[in-house]
Each structure stands twice: as structure tokens, then as C-alpha cells.
């Protein structure tokens, strides 16, 4: 709006009389003319009027300007044009003039809210799984007034088509196997692909050797882990001609998925009362200290059943890879085997080959003694039985032959045979030459005598 003031004055030069007459009339109505007729531009009255009018018109604008300076305003429909790059885990937006500060918030379904400070109109988050969807919020200050905008990141594709039961295992320090299963809602022509990115986000590679089932990739084998870091980002996406396939991603720490090999160079040394087992820590992907390991020992005496009768023994890695246990002599053959696990997680690896120690001589000698005792007892019993049977048989079948009695010498000697043997035997065994048998006399027939 503009304001203008135009004042015009006309004066004639028709004569002195006219001028004098006009002066008379001018004196009478000077007050009236001063209020009605406009005055020249340079007059003080016109300048005063212009000043008053300008002050009345400009005062509300001035007050409005003061109010906006106290509380800065931004267009209510202004947009930051927020964008999210999942590969870089970076959130960007359009920078506004007079932007002073701001921050970003990632709302994760499992980890909750993750906040980051703004740097040059962008925020970079650490690697997180995104297959469950996240909500991203940007809040900045423009002219000291906050502006926020929210972006919802979802997993595109049909529900239930993503790979499931995903897991990875590092073994023998240099190899890794990853496996997954086909989604329950995935079509028959689905095909999955695995991509691995380390924590520096500079090295990303696809699986070099896929494991397939009915033509569908369901696993991956890696023989070189040199490009991987402590934790890595694993992404399994899929393709199909029928429908969109959702992706699955996960963050895995290699130390947590590594299964340690058995310890090597296991030795056992024994004295009269104890045995000492020593071993060396296994080879791992990284050279960890001894305290990062724990060991489990199975010491057992070999038996026919082949099972261990002793309890398992857990030994900390701080024990200098040694274990001393009582084993007095004589000791039979014993065996020990060891396996390894992480000190924080009891995920045991494979058992080592059994190491035999002790001697078989004491056990063999005891068995031999038992056998000899049994055999000796049997032999002695048989010998006694044979002798006893022979002694009884000789007296019954072959009785002793009587000797000829000498009257001259035997009159004063006791006949022991006569004392021991009954009369019938004595008479039968010692017949006398001078003794003749006479027939008994029978009584003659005749009258009975009274």
C-alpha cells in the first residue's frame, strides 16, 4: 500500500485592486480556508498530516513483524523430503536455511528407540536387521522452531515368502556354512540369494557356493573368511515370477557362531599317586587368549561296555591348560578326551581322539593270580580225591598177606593182627599146619539117659 498527498496552489496576477480586495476577504475567512484548502507540499501542516497517516498505517505491520521475530514461523506444509538408504543405513533430508540442530530416531521392534545426532542434514545408524520394518523420525530446528517428519520403512513382498530358520556356523577356523529354509508361503519358482557385508560396509559379496534342494538355494558354503570382520550383515533376498519375495537379514557376531576344534597335543604324565594332563588351545579364527576358552575332560577306565563311569570335568582356560587328578598305583589302562567351548557360552565342539595312559600289567597279573588260584584249588582237590579213592580201593581188593608165625620168637610178642582182627578173620587168615579138622561125633542110638 502506498500513500500520496497532492497539494496544488493557483495565484493570479490580474491587478493590484483585485489583489487588495482579495486580501480583505482573505483575512475574514483565513481560518476556514486553512482547514479546507490543501496546502503546498513543502508546508509544515501537510508534512504533519502525512506523518500521522503513515504512522497509523505502518504501526500494525510493525507490531506484526515484532511478533514473528519473537516466535519464528515456518510454512505449515513444509516437507523435509526424508529418504532412507538401507545399504548405508543412512537417513537424509533436504536442508533448510537457518537450520541449527537436529536428531534422528529409529524405532526398532526388538531394540526399541535408537537415537543419532544430525550431521550435515543426515544421520547414519549402525547395522540393524530391517526385515521386521522400522520407523524413522527426523526432528530439526529451523529459525529456532522444531520441525519433524516420519518415514515408515517396510519389508516389501508377500507375507511368509522370506527365507526362514536362518543360521550360520564357523568351524575349523577357516570355513563357514549358512543354511535357511524356504518360506511357507513362497511359490515353487522362488530362488534365494545370500549377500554378506562386513561392519566397514566396504566389502560386500555374494555367496560363492550355494547348497541347493530341488533346485532352490537353501544354504551357502564359504572357504575364505578373510574379508569378514567381528560382526557382519547377512541378507537373504529372493525372486519369483509369481509374486514379490520378502527379504530376511540378520547381524551375526562371528565369535558367537564359531564352533571350536578340539585341543591338540594332549599328553598325560603319571607318578606313583597322580596323573597330569596337558594340552594346547585349538586353532581359531582369531588368536584369543587362554581365558576366552573352557574345556571339558572325560577321564574313564576302559571297560567291556565302553561307557565312562566317571563324571565330566570342566576346566577353565585360566588353569594354564592342565589338570592334575589322583590316580594311585597300581592303575589299569585309562583314557582321556577333551573338547572346547567359549568361556561365556557352553557351545561345546567335537571331542578329541582318546589318549590312552596307564599300564595293563597290573590288571593282567591280578587276573593271572586269580586263574592260578582257581586252577591250583581244582588240581589239589582232584589229587586228594584220587589218593583217597586209591587208598580205599587198595584195602578192599588186595587185603594184606599174613606172615608165618615163628613160635620161638613170637611167644613173647603180642599178636597185633590177632588183637585187631575178629576171630573169624583170624582163623581164616592164619591156618595152622598141625591142626587137623575132625568130623563131629554123633551120639549112638540107644536109650536116652536121664
TrEMBL record:
Topology class, membrane:
Single-pass type I membrane protein
Mind listing the GO molecular function terms for this protein?
Answer: cytokine receptor activity
Q: Where in the cell is it found?
A: Membrane
Q: Does the keyword Membrane apply?
A: yes
Q: Which UniProt keywords apply?
A: Glycoprotein, Membrane, Receptor, Signal, Transmembrane, Transmembrane helix
The protein's superkingdom reads: Eukaryota
Q: What is its main location?
A: membrane
Give a GO cellular-component term: external side of plasma membrane
Q: Which InterPro entries match?
A: FN3_dom, FN3_sf, Ig-like_fold, IL3Ra_N, Short_hematopoietin_rcpt_2_CS, TypeI_recpt_CBD
What name appears for this protein in its UniProt entry?
A: Granulocyte-macrophage colony-stimulating factor receptor subunit alpha isoform X3
